[in-house]
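Input record (Table S2, row 504):
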Amino acid sequence: MEENRGQWGSKIGFILAVVGSAVGLGNIWRYPYLLYSNGGGAFLVPYFIALFTAGIPLVILEYGFGHKFRGSGALSFARANKKFEWLGWWPSFSSFIILTYYTMILSWAMNFLTFSFGKTWGADTNSFFFNDFLQVSSGPFDIGGMRWAIFIGITVIWSFNWFISYKGVSGGIEKLNKILLPMLLGIMVIIVIKGVTLPGASVGLNRLFTPDWSKVKELDVWIDAYGQVFFSLSLAMGILITYSSYLPKKSDINNSAFMTAFANSGFEFLCAIGVFGILGFMATAQGVPIDEVASQSIGLAFVVFPKVFSLMGPIGTLFGVLFFVSLVFAGLTSSISLMEAFVSAVTDKTGSSRKKVVTITAIVGYLVSVMYATGAGLYFLDIIDAFINSFSIVVVGLLEAIVIGWVVGADKIRKHTNSVSIYRIGKWWEFMIKFVTPAILIYMVASNIINEFNNPYGGGSYPTSALILFGWGVVGAIIIFATLTSRAKWKDGTLEDIDNEEVA
Ligand code: PHE
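Output record (phenylalanine complex):
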């Protein structure tokens, strides 16, 4: 059985793969805006507290768990306590769903990469994106036509994902990250250097970093900080558990956890500087305050930035190309990790060959993704993503902390990671996992649920039936699938097949 599982070629390969997963669209288009809108420099306080009280402790937990039980999320939970196998499947199915729409966003980015050369988006980039490019339909139940350009992009990305996954852990995933991640960093450094030297950049940067300490008193700001740390570190997706199960038996877990977390934060910070330098340039060029141009997510990437690239003149072409390449690279290294979280769980459970599982996953995933290439694709993405982020991921994180912390035993995991690590973590870690992290996450889950009932997602722009079907429905379906799959039989001997002598 163990031979059917891959192994990293080197420790740096593992680190790069985890950082590749962590560094994604969230770093580029979400973190800069969060920093800006949540008190600027002052946001760093909740952010770092979130990193140390939940982010890093959970990274250590997931690494330690996957490394100790040597399996995907599903296999590790099944080995630790058969009753909780479903908790391993839940994030694996979430990963699969996220992957289906991540692919669409990457397809948009690829399309915009080609538009950069001729700045095809024209003067009204908002109308270009929503009306001409996406041809957004009237609502989630109006499918609209197939957008062939997006369809082609989805086909390319899925073929690529299939190819890399097919090549395996060290031959595919590790190689991909070893090539793309340094390139991504290089591109980002170029964007940042050019960005901060643009006229007006300092306006954006001053506005970004000027601390507004009153924000630190707002609870929402804290929830944002924890949410960002969670999402950004790719926690509660089964990814870190799976990736660390591919480490050799003797590998420094604790040290890797700190390294990957800091690398991710550093990259986020770099992106914030670049993005706000560029926004400062735009505000100055148009003679408007920063607040009018600051934005995030798809609005930043596909509406505001294209406008900036047009404003820049000829150099804007280069900026545009570099920016969309960076989105594609950052996205590919994250999507490959989502794919792996799912593929490894299925391979572990069925004992089928990796190649077969990868191929079937890619075909099914591709067919689901094609739905997003329609005029209603943006609505599907928006609703599903909101519900998975506010309910699925946070609840899984909470359950992981409780089940691994209390049932499996935080002390066992700590003993395990300390036995293989040079830097030993103290009792503080158990305290975080058993008390602090769950308390914060319970608060987050409760506030998200109350919020959703008081103000249903979308502020009334979506019919309730759409929120029930695509929001609660998809999250519910993930849980049902997870429960049913956990009832199926394991390939003979898999659960017992672990010579996990306590190294301590
Ligand atoms: N960590 C990625 C980011 O910051 C997002 C992501 C989450 C990717 C979960 C894969 C899985 O953008």
